[in-house]
Design a protein that fits this description.
Layout: H1 4-7, E1 14-17, E2 28-31, E3 35-39, E4 45-52, H2 68-80, H3 84-94, E5 109-114, E6 123-130, E7 135-142, E8 145-154, E9 159-166, E10 172-179, E11 187-191, E12 196-202, E13 210-220, E14 223-227, E15 230-236, E16 238-247, H4 254-266, H5 270-285, E17 289-291, H6 297-300, H7 304-312, H8 318-335, E18 361-362, H9 366-370, H10 384-405, E19 415-416, H11 437-452, H12 455-475, E20 477-478, E21 484-485, E22 496-497, E23 503-504, H13 511-531, H14 535-547, E24 567-568, H15 594-609, H16 616-628, H17 632-645, H18 661-674, E25 675-676, E26 682-684, E27 695-702, E28 706-713, E29 716-724, E30 728-734, E31 737-743, E32 748-750
Parallel strand pairs: 26-30
Antiparallel strand pairs: 1-6, 2-3, 3-4, 4-5, 5-10, 6-7, 7-8, 8-9, 9-16, 10-15, 11-12, 12-13, 13-16, 14-15, 17-27, 18-19, 20-21, 22-23, 22-24, 25-26, 27-28, 28-29, 29-32, 30-31
Helix pairs in contact: 2-3, 7-17, 8-18, 10-11, 10-12, 11-12, 11-13, 12-13, 13-14, 16-17, 16-18, 17-18
This protein binds alpha-L-fucopyranose (FUC).
Alpha-L-fucopyranose (FUC) binds near residues 345, 357, 575 and 615.
Length: about 750
């Protein structure tokens, strides 16, 4: 066994620990978009908790409430007349989905490995997640023998691979089994020949699919056999376990498919499996390199949990920030690859049969946040599963638009699930009856085009964007002063106070709605211009833009959250929806609309002064807001707050509980501090804090088809190089200086 594997000095791109995970939030995630695992690294009783992205409870349903449309005029009338209580009561009866809830995500199961103990404690224990290789390793010494396990989820081979070795021949003995804790009655494990197991079962619920997990063992030396539901390996030199999972969502016969996948992979020697994984993995991961300087060997050589603990005590650690940034990229690559489902609230990693918020796709911020890093952090293909989901939502979304609101186009409310369900989720008035989900999601299609400049993609995406815009056109109604307004709506998920002391959530015209509509319709106009189509519609869209209520500044100097300048019931609320126009939108910028930028600052300060940012994702959004306001100090303060208040020992974001959006939003925010491109200029180092005075980044992407490298020293840009994918004029800003560069596609320009 190569000694480098045990003694290798961690190079800043590893999460590592001196002890096994005592609980799930300490375990380390691996994944290939579709298959995921949490590796605990226990010495004697190893638990590898497995997920497959399409294991969901129940089948598809039409949950649209047929009583919505007949009652819509009355609900609107009551809201517009200020008879809120009655409006909300009627809405609670007529608008909810039937039944109220969408489907939920389930674990695939556990893989348990039992290693014979010696009664002694293992020495030299080390557990590592190597971000450069996409592998999780565990090594330790028992009775003078060094043991080594290496695990990864291979995208090219669509399997999970576990390699177990020791430095003394014949030392590997273990028993392995699948286990599915609470729902045992729904599945059963059988032998698959002498060297494999298959667990098959039903996902449960009406229309629920079938799932399968299979495992094949390839060992060198010793013996392998199956007894009952166990695989038993004795005195092998080394063992490779190959695990596959499949469901009826993708395969007519998941067992056949799972076995074929596992057989194909187990037919390859371990070094080949590893090599195929590494080639694929590093082709994505290595595109971006980040150093934020501040190397302090006293902390960078410490285990990750100990470093995090020091940050909680107030220690600065730019190296940990850079690691957190790359971990966000790692998580997206591991939970969202072409052909997989999009990253859900937990990415793909979930051990619960009734997970928090069903571990589905919450689309009033969370799912969108999951993808904020995809383009600028150079993982554009990881964005594709979201686009597949948007496509899948079109048909059900048309039904929701028609049945609930009598509108053309397609709509979705604040959640969707594996079946792309678009009817409302819950009867939770602050959130449920908000039909902007599809419109917001479609902006991701536009962003993908802006970064990649691929007109073929835009040609395909434009009809989807247009269909979301058609819904908005029909959903808008004329308000008393000629404005076009949304009704009913909510400002996710806040509550306002009326002057008479009553509180309400449903409203006409939440500011966020107008900002989303403005962004989507502007994107549609620009797309139609690029594609030279829909001239008449473009005129109609232009007219709508002039009739939307303009953003307003309220009595505190803040961006108004609603059309009326209401007080918020919870001024520190985690949602800051009315700053959509600052980020991810672009309506409020420091240069073009300084008055709105100033009001956005007041809004943020008020939220934070009242306890805002208490959930991980809210804190991550705040980082992006401050970055857009070009406030380096506040951006960094919030990065550190995300690490110290909302990060678990395995660096997972802590809502609480674990929710992955904060990881993704945090990574996006760090990138946004270093490079911005939303206003037609590449703004280099727009919010670089003093603490990151020396560093470099390689491979960030910018809108317009650019890839950017930067080196900075003492807080000043030293060198930048820009590669263009399209010829034209590139505008670059450093500090207050803007330069224009004539660029040619494929060439690299160094400043
Ligand atoms: C929204 C948020 C919650 C949580 C949930 C999944 O409802 O308000 O904080 O993130 O989504």
């Amino acid at each position: 066994m190569p000694s480098t594997e045990q003694t290798k000095k961690e190079d800043g791109l590893t999460l590592w620990y001196r002890q096994p995970a005592a609980e799930w939030n300490e375990a380390l995630p691996i994944g290939n978009g579709r298959l995921g695992a949490m590796v605990f690294g226990q010495v004697e009783k190893e638990r590898i908790q497995l997920n497959e992205d399409s294991v969901w409870y129940g089948g598809p349903r039409d949950r649209n409430n047929p009583d919505a449309l007949p009652n819509l005029p009355r609900i609107r009338e009551l809201i517009l007349a200020g008879r809120l209580r009655e409006a909300q009561e009627l809405a609670s009866l007529a608008l909810p989905g039937l039944p109220e809830c969408q489907r939920h995500y389930l674990p695939l199961g556990d893989l348990q490995l039992f290693f014979p103990g010696t009664g002694q404690e293992a020495a030299g224990y080390r557990r590592v997640l190597d971000l450069n290789r996409g592998t999780a390793t565990v090594c330790y010494e028992l009775d003078g023998v060094r043991y080594f396990r290496e695990m990864f989820a291979s995208y090219p081979d669509q399997v999970m691979v576990i390699r177990i070795r020791a430095d003394k021949p014949g030392s590997i003995s273990l028993q392995a089994r699948f286990n599915r804790n609470r729902w045992k009655y729904l599945e059963r494990t059988d032998k698959w020949g002498q060297d494999g197991l298959v667990m098959r079962g039903n996902c449960g619920g009406a229309g629920g699919g079938e799932f399968v997990a299979v495992m094949k063992s390839v060992q060198e030396g010793g013996s392998v056999r199956t007894i009952g539901e166990h695989l038993v390996i004795e005195q092998a030199d080394q063992v490779t376990l190959v695990i596959a999972g499949a469901t009826t969502l993708r395969f007519d016969d998941p067992e056949k498919a799972g076995k074929e996948i596992a057989l194909a992979a187990s037919g390859r020697a371990y070094p080949e499996l590893l090599e195929r994984h590494l080639v694929d993995y590093s082709s994505l991961f290595s595109r971006v390199e980040l150093s934020l300087g501040g190397a302090d060997s006293s902390t960078s050589s410490l285990p990750t949990d100990e470093r995090l603990e020091l940050v909680k005590q107030g220690k600065d650690d730019p190296g940990l920030v850079a690691l957190y940034f790359q971990f966000g990229r790692y998580l997206l690559m591991s939970s969202s690859r072409p052909g997989s489902l999009p990253a859900n609230l937990q990415g793909i990693w979930n051990e619960s049969f009734l997970p928090p918020w069903d571990s589905k796709f919450t689309i009033n911020i969370n799912t969108q946040m999951n993808y904020w890093l995809a383009e600028n952090c150079n993982l554009a293909e990881c964005h594709l599963p979201l686009f597949d989901m948007i496509e899948k939502m079109r048909e059900p979304g048309r039904v929701s638009a028609q049945v609930m609101y009598g509108c053309r186009g397609f709509t979705a409310h604040h959640n969707t699930d594996v079946w792309a369900d678009t009817a409302p989720q819950d009867t939770y008035l602050p959130a449920s009856f908000w039909p902007m989900g599809a419109a917001w999601l479609c902006l991701h299609l536009w962003e993908h085009y802006r970064f990649g400049q691929d007109e073929v993609f835009l040609r395909d995406a434009y009809p989807t964007m247009k269909e979301a815009a058609l819904f908005l056109m029909d959903y808008l109604i004329e308000g008393s002063n000629g404005h076009l307004i949304t009704c009913p709506s909510v400002s996710p998920e806040n509550t306002y106070l009326l002057p008479n002391g009553e509180s309400g959530v449903m409203c006409a015209g939440a500011s966020m709605d107008f900002q989303i509509i403005h962004a989507l319709i502007s994107a549609c106009i620009e797309s139609a211009e690029i594609l030279d189509s829909d001239e008449l519609l473009r005129k109609e869209w232009q007219e709508i833009l002039t009739r939307l209520p303009a953003p307003a500044i309220g009595k505190h100097g803040q961006i108004q959250e609603w059309m009326e300048d209401y007080e918020e019931l919870e001024p520190g609320h985690r949602h800051i929806s009315h700053l959509f126009g600052l980020y991810p939108g672009e309506q409020f910028t420091v240069e073009e609309t300084p008055e709105f930028a100033a009001a956005a600052r007041v809004t943020l300060e008020r939220r934070l002064a009242n306890g805002g940012g208490h959930t991980g994702w809210s804190r991550a959004w705040i980082i992006n807001f401050w970055a857009r306001l070009q406030d380096a100090k506040k951006s960094r303060e919030n990065v550190m707050a995300l690490l110290s208040h909302s990060t678990l020992p395995n660096l997972f974001d802590n809502h609480p509980p674990f929710q992955i959006d904060g990881n993704f939003g945090g990574t996006a925010g760090i990138a946004e501090m270093l490079l911005q491109s939303h206003s037609g200029v590449l703004h280099l180092l727009p919010a670089l804090p003093e603490e990151w005075a020396n560093g470099h980044i390689r491979g960030l992407r910018a809108r317009g088809g650019y890839t950017v490298h930067m080196v900075w020293k003492d807080g000043k840009l030293l060198e930048a190089s820009i590669t263009a994918s399209k010829s034209g004029i590139c505008r670059i800003r450093v500090g207050e200086t803007v330069i224009e560069l004539q660029v040619e596609a494929g060439k690299r320009y160094t400043l």
